[in-house]
Amino acid sequence: xxxxxxxxxxxxxxxxxxxxxxxxxxxxxxxxxxxxxxxxxxxxxxxxxxxxxxxxxxxxxxxxxxxxxxxxxxxxxxxxxxxxxxxxxxxxxxxxxxxxxxxxxxxxxxxxxxxxxxxxxxxxxxxxxxxxxxxxxxxxxxxxxxxxxxxxxxxxxxxxxxxxxxxxxxxxxxxxxxxxxxxxxxxxxxxxxxxxxxxxxxxxxxxxxxxxxxxxxxxxxxxxxxxxxxxxxxxxxxxxxxxxxxxxxxxxxxxxxxxxxxxxxxxxxxxxxxxxxxxxxxxxxxxxxxxxxx
Length: 294
Description:
The protein is α/β, with parallel strands linked by helices. It has two domains: 48-146 and 246-282, D-Maltodextrin-Binding Protein, domain 2; 149-239, D-Maltodextrin-Binding Protein, domain 2. Helices cover 35% and strands 13% of the residues. The protein is built from ten helices and ten strands. The chain has helices at 8-34, 83-95, 110-113, 132-135, 165-168, 180-188, 200-208, 219-229, 259-271, 274-282; strands spanning 59-62, 102-105, 123-124, 138-140, 149-153, 174-176, 195-197, 214-218, 234-239, 251-253. Strand 6, helix 6 and strand 7 (195-197) form a beta-alpha-beta unit. Helix 2 (83-95) crosses helix 9 (259-271) and helix 2 packs antiparallel against helix 10. The radius of gyration is 30 Å and the shape is elongated.
């Protein structure tokens, strides 16, 4: 006697197996979409292990060699004493770095620092003014300080009793190559035949040797210069701001994607008053200085 096969149970079983397989494939697909790609390091960005850093695990800061007060004291950036290095350590803390994770790179001259091309640091700080010309080949942070320009001269110089730009133009001027001080003399004061020197020390030596009558510098630099480098000189006047110089910013290699992260940290310490407190501590002069408006 033939028996009829009951296929209904088998059908249910097959359907169930197919459904489980499909569910498994769907789960595997979703898991594959959510799992990070091999080598994906985006989770480390904006941390001390950010792979975009020159040396992940460290914040590498470019600066000068030597460095001068009041920007940095004792020619030792790592001590954190001085306006610029104290600000860097406050910024580093804001970004999550310990003081031991801050490394100073001092191998470049100022001219090399502001030149285009790869940089051996995450950013540089050395009284670098943000200008439209420099922004074409470099990237900058927000401005954190805008210093006054000061006239530095020896007693008896033609600029000591100057009251106008016309009076100033009669003097013999010198400045350091590649600086906004040189730009200011040529483009704002309208001085021709400015003597150009490789560094600030050379400029002051020329003044002491009687080769030039005067130079200009950011007011904090002028305070140090007249107190230590050329104590026989004095700050004889303050000058109006350069409209092409918006102030000091941190310098980055062009295209560096760390800029936004660093800017957020820098803005945070500005908003909390940290930078203003450091300005008052290190950069402001005692007493009044006469101003020449034009």
